[in-house]
Amino acid sequence: MLETSIHPQDLPLFSDDLDRLEKVLDAVCEDRGINFRSPEAERLGALIIQLYRQGVKEDAKLLALARAYL
Question: What does pTM read for this prediction?
């Protein structure tokens, strides 16, 4: 039997997850005056998704880390 381990980064993001992450992204973009369609916002969104997949599930922590990234 083939044994594989499933890593959190391999799990799909559901619509509830994406809604939460979008709210975090919106808040940081608004705070920093970043256009939501800019390359900077895309990089920030990718970071937020990566943090979430690594186990950062609390909105406040995601906000703090995303703000620190800028």
Answer: 0.83
